[in-house]
Design goal:
8 helices; Nucleotidyltransferase, domain 5; 13 strands; about 35% helix; globular; alpha/beta
């Protein structure tokens, strides 16, 4: 067979690459995500342009596309994405009519979970949870070495209620991703200081002792620990895999969450915290694997 193109449409970037017939993920690229695009048409056009560009140098059998939020994978519809500002948008139809190539839609973090299970940190565990921390937050559940997703709302961990009242685009107040996502760190830091910097810069400033950065990083850790403690008490995973852009903080990320877990877990199975092995390419890789499976089954 030919190759499968994997596309990860995020809030700020479109990550892409080709899954070869030997399961190597090659020719990886980054392109900007169109902003202020509530109709989704600009995104569809950008995605189609990327597909057609790859098509010039690769024999593509299919395209895997992943997006944040609630998705109807079978119908190729973005049901709701707070990150992208979409509701009930037929993204697959819009991409396919511009490229002529069969395109398969999946949730971005479900796809990242597939990639971690096949190539990454989940391989050594029977039961694990991937928490992808980017513009927002979502989770993928692995039970007995299989992705567990009985319905499309599964894994919207970022919309679990915690202890603050920050408003969320989903319509509620106090969602986890309004405090413990990379996007929230940057927004909340800018609200305090008037300065817009990256989440990793905030981590560095927290390490150096800057008060505002330290306060937000501590709050981040407490909020994430609060959520993980609930996961540990209800599903009991052996490991929690931490992915997304903030995972580049590495040991600092594990340390700030571990501090919060120390006073929240007692008799529970304490999950091992592990940094993703696939960096920020997991969702794009998983989108290609998911599309390949569905293409071969069709």
């Amino acid at each position: 067979m030919g190759s499968i193109l994997g596309l990860d449409l995020g809030g700020t970037a479109i990550k892409s690459g080709v899954l070869s017939d030997s399961s190597q993920f090659i020719d990886t690229r980054n392109n900007p995500t169109p902003q202020n695009d509530p109709s989704g048409i600009a995104a569809a056009e950008a995605l189609a342009e990327i597909v057609l560009d790859y098509k010039e140098t690769h024999k593509l059998d299919a395209v895997g596309l992943v997006i944040p939020g609630l998705v109807d994978s079978e119908r190729g519809i973005s049901v709701f994405s707070g990150t992208l500002g979409w509701r009930n948008f037929a993204i697959v139809d819009e991409v396919e009519k511009r490229t002529g190539i069969r395109t398969y839609l999946e949730h971005d973090v479900t796809a990242a979970g597939i990639a971690e299970l096949r190539l990454g940190a989940s391989r050594e565990f029977n039961d694990s949870i991937l928490i992808q921390i980017g513009t927002g937050i979502a989770a993928a559940y692995v039970l007995n070495k299989k992705i567990f997703k009985p319905h499309s709302q599964m894994g919207e961990f970022g919309h679990a209620p915690i202890f603050n009242d920050r408003p969320c685009p989903c319509g509620l107040n106090g969602c986890l991703e309004m405090t413990a996502s990379g996007g929230a760190l940057s927004r909340n830091y800018a609200a305090l200081t008037g300065e817009k910097i990256s989440p990793l810069e905030i981590v560095e400033r927290a390490k150096s002792g800057e008060r505002q950065a330290s306060d937000l990083w501590h709050e981040f850790g407490e909020a994430m620990a609060f959520g993980i403690a609930w996961l540990a008490s209800t599903t009991g995973p052996e490991a929690v895999i931490l992915g997304g852009g903030i995972a580049k903080a590495g040991a600092e990320l594990i340390e700030v969450i571990e501090k919060g877990l120390q006073h929240r877990l007692s008799i529970h199975l304490k999950p091992k915290l592990v940094i993703s092995e696939l960096d920020d390419k997991a969702a794009a890789i998983g989108s290609a694997f998911s599309a390949k499976d569905r293409y071969l089954a069709s």
